[in-house]
Amino acid sequence: MTNRTPLMAGNWKMNLDHHEATHLVQKLAWELKDKEHDYSAVEVVVVPPFTDLRSVQTLVDGDKLEVRYGAQDVSAQEKGAYTGEISAAMLAKLGVSYAVVGHSERRQYHAEDDALVGAKAKAALAHGIVPIICVGEGLDVRQAGDQVSYTLAQVDGAYAGLDAEAAAKTVVAYEPVWAIGTGEVATPEDAQEVCGAIRARLAELYSQEVADSVRVLYGGSVKSGNVASIMVKEDVDGALVGGASLQAEEFAAIVRYQQ
Ligand code: PEP
């Protein structure tokens, strides 16, 4: 990678209430402080459920923690009669830095398509929130050897409404669905193949400068024991971590993969 700051983001999914959230963030911050972690060298983001965000904000602000936090989703709508939705403006008010959009679980269980994912990314960016745009193929696609074309079609769809200035601020997470929560991690070469193709596609759609500024993360059963071998790859700029981010020590070890 060039001079992109590695990003480690922990997606808690539908786990931990606001008391547990506070506890985990405190423990994580302590672990990292104990090891004198340099947050400017590896950025650290937790992505709790919506209901935890206010508590995490209070803790982060009160203790002046360098941990950032994100939301697991964001509405494509600005405001109004959209029961159950949370707007980007509301998240921005809570100091949210990132919003995951198009996670495979949302695509699968909430029928989100690329157009909606793109609209959510746009809504986030309009409020200064960086979208983490998730893409990645299922097992059938991988077995057919179509992982690159499938994933690039998702990239094309999600970026369709974004101009170069907006695109340059995004983060992409390549998350092969067959590796999420399964314990089956992509090989570093598999991860590089698709992450590299994503960057090349961004260069085609926009420019090399835009492509070089976008951080491309890998996600799928990342743990402290496998993260370093994946991070070595030139187009992998970090990880979106699910299960392993629920334990402070384990997530801290992932953040500190260089040690
Ligand atoms: C995820 O939910 O984005 C994810 C990658 O999960 P896990 O690390 O548990 O595979």
CATH domain fold name: TIM Barrel
Strand percent estimate: 5-15%
Mean pLDDT comes to 97
Per CATH, the superfamily is: Aldolase class I
Question: What ligand species are in this complex?
Answer: phosphoenolpyruvate
| SSE run | EHEHEHEHHEHHHEHHEHEH
**What is the CATH domain class?**
Alpha Beta
* Anisotropy-based shape: globular
Q: So, CATH architecture? A: Alpha-Beta Barrel
pLDDT < 50 stretches: none
Helix/strand/pairing class, anyone? alpha/beta
What is the tally of beta strands? Answer: 8
Q: Write out the strand line-up for the largest beta sheet, numbering strands in chain order.
A: 1-2-3-4-5-6-7-8
The major beta sheet can be summarized as: 8 strands, parallel, barrel
Task: Show the helix and strand layout.
Blueprint: E1 7-11, H1 18-34, E2 43-47, H2 53-62, E3 68-71, H3 88-93, E4 98-101, H4 104-109, H5 114-126, E5 130-135, H6 139-143, H7 147-159, H8 164-167, E6 171-174, H9 188-205, H10 208-213, E7 215-219, H11 227-231, E8 238-241, H12 248-255
Parallel strand pairs: 1-2, 1-8, 2-3, 3-4, 4-5, 5-6, 6-7, 7-8
Bound molecules: phosphoenolpyruvate.
Concise structural overview:
The protein has 259 residues and is α/β, with parallel strands linked by helices. The protein is 43% helix and 14% strand. Helix 2 links the parallel strand 2 and strand 3 (68-71).
Explained architecture:
With 259 residues, this protein is α/β, with parallel strands linked by helices. It has a single domain, classed as TIM Barrel, CATH 3.20.20.70. It has 12 helices and 8 strands. An 8-stranded parallel barrel has the order 1-2-3-4-5-6-7-8, surrounded by 5 helices. The protein binds phosphoenolpyruvate. The site of phosphoenolpyruvate (PEP) has 14 residues, from strand 8. Phosphoenolpyruvate (PEP) binds next to strand 8. This is Triosephosphate isomerase. Its EC number is 5.3.1.1.
